[in-house]
């Protein structure tokens, strides 16, 4: 099981290294364990997260790609679809069976044809356009709807922190 | 819970324990030799009662015997000393203690040699397994066979100690194998060591099986069954790991000399079911042996209303469910296989040539493939394992018409859980012992044995721990979740962790929440990417001087070196990845500062 998962992860790593999408870097933290990756994601331009470089951890199950990996930001994040502890809540990361929010169609869920690259691109678009219906972080969702200026300020602060620039 | 209590006990470390054991043993030996040195030792005791009434002649005879005893050979002397030691109760306990000490030292040596530093999850598995084993064997010895004599207890205890030791090593070997299989670059030497250890364990289990046959020959069938059950389990589990390991190594070798032609590809396709059936066989065999063993215990103990039988019944229920689950899964497997063969034809060579893509599931070249109604092609094995858990085309999400008519299709939620979490249901065994029912002065107590959810690789995302950690963090927002989780792993309870925090036993993390201290802001950034940046000085006014913030120029020649290439050597790959990350952050920083400069200028 782990053998085929390993080969597939190696292939994905190679592809992401040779052909990286703009502003995204991902790879195993330590090659001794190929099932734990770190990804750096650049905030999309023209959004409140513009310019930030957000680190996240990806943990793959032994039966990858049959089951989706788990993704968690390791920096502070404030976003309607990201839990307070950094876990990302997007439909592509949910296995076809479970539906924590109870509204996703299975077409949006994980499938083995998805890949790390696709996940990271979805996360980028999630940063750009939060889905305030699924409330992983209710406070953030509320602020996003009702008090966009305040939200932007917080996002700005987070961006600076990720870059090591004083706020 | 007993586990927590034991963890909190101030156990002495191994060195002091060994020293104490050795000291005790040497004192014991000294005592024995001291007694034996006296040539009369053997007579002094027994003759005290017999000698006085005897005639003088015989007494003299005794004396001559004694003088000759002084010329005992060394081996005789040690033999005598040993017999003294076995007669003295204190010495016996000291020797038993020494035996355990040896076992622990042996285990430590094996661990040092084969495993090196244990990982956290391995340690946890080990502890869990250890306490479970101790608990169930305790129930077995005192609840089921109800031993009456100290000798019997000692014999059973030593038997199970040895078995438990091997079980633990086997578990450790399994964990380590699973971990090693996560890495593409493991030196052959560590594979050899681990396989050697597993082989040794298997050989030992065979040997112990022979011993149990030998003992059973004299003691009857029941004793044989009790003794051999655990041995057989050990053998099956170890062999399972060895077989999996061999297959894994075979895979790696095959990969290294890749010459996939059509023949090897079809051979691979055929290999899939074989591996599946081997796995199935091992799992079912282990479960059935365990089940039969427990039924046997239940029948043997003959008292259906006791604490022991309650525990056994719980275990039986669990085992039964496991077997049932496995059978269900197998039926599902057969059904999917059958369905695939009937409805999805093998793709022709032209079709494969047309779709020159790789298989979308494993990203490897397709030599043979099956075609779905939506004309998407996949490897047979890849498709099979996907369809077992979901009934749609992975690429276009076309719902496939797989409805198992025999209504044995497990519910989707169950299928979902099968592949990733084989035994994840938390099992809580709770039972109450009311001692006063038997003897008035006996205490009453309740024991809860909980099989804690395994904190393995998925540990980081263990939802239970996370929930507990968040609970703690609400009280102490300045502690980060990872630190709390680290402590929760040890304490396994919210209250104890809170206590630890209140007592200051937890390292306080660098505070960065909501604080506007610039020096702490970098703690967010992973790695130490920002170390080489001069930390900008604190500017209290909101209008920042953007020129103050210096940004290292991103060297352009470095870009060439990093380039877009995928190195063959893992260390080089790591370095390149690190450099790329560094560069990304530097570029982002530079861009950000420049933009802010522009804004502040206008």
From TrEMBL, chain A:
Enzyme Commission numbers on file: 2.3.2.23
SMART domains given in the database record: UBCc (SM00212)
Membrane-spanning residues: none
GO terms of molecular function: ATP binding; ubiquitin conjugating enzyme activity
Residues at the catalytic site: 89 (glycyl thioester intermediate)
UniProt cross-references to Pfam families, sorted A to Z: UQ_con
Residues forming coiled coils: none
InterPro entries, sorted: Ub_conjugating_enzyme, UBC, UBQ-conjugating_AS, UBQ-conjugating_enzyme/RWD
Family named by the database record: Belongs to the ubiquitin-conjugating enzyme family.
Subunit structure and binding partners: Interacts with AUP1 (via C-terminus); the interaction recruits UBE2G2 to lipid droplets. Interacts with ubiquitin ligases AMFR/gp78 and RNF139/TRC8; recruitment to lipid droplets by AUP1 facilitates interaction of UBE2G2 with AMFR and RNF139, leading to sterol-induced ubiquitination of 3-hydroxy-3-methylglutaryl coenzyme A reductase and its subsequent proteasomal degradation.
Protein name: Ubiquitin-conjugating enzyme E2 G2
Gene source species: Aquatica leii
High-level lineage: Eukaryota, Metazoa, Ecdysozoa, Arthropoda, Hexapoda
From TrEMBL, chain B:
Membrane topology (UniProt): Multi-pass membrane protein
PROSITE patterns per record: CUE (PS51140), ZF_RING_2 (PS50089)
Keyword match Membrane: yes
Signal peptide: none
Protein name: Autocrine motility factor receptor
Residue ranges, annotated region (Disordered): 404-424, 507-544
Location of the CUE domain: 464-506
Annotated compartments: Membrane
GO biological process: endoplasmic reticulum unfolded protein response; protein K48-linked ubiquitination; ubiquitin-dependent protein catabolic process
SMART domains in the cross-refs: CUE (SM00546), RING (SM00184)
GO molecular function: ubiquitin binding; ubiquitin protein ligase activity; zinc ion binding
Pfam family, one: zf-RING_2
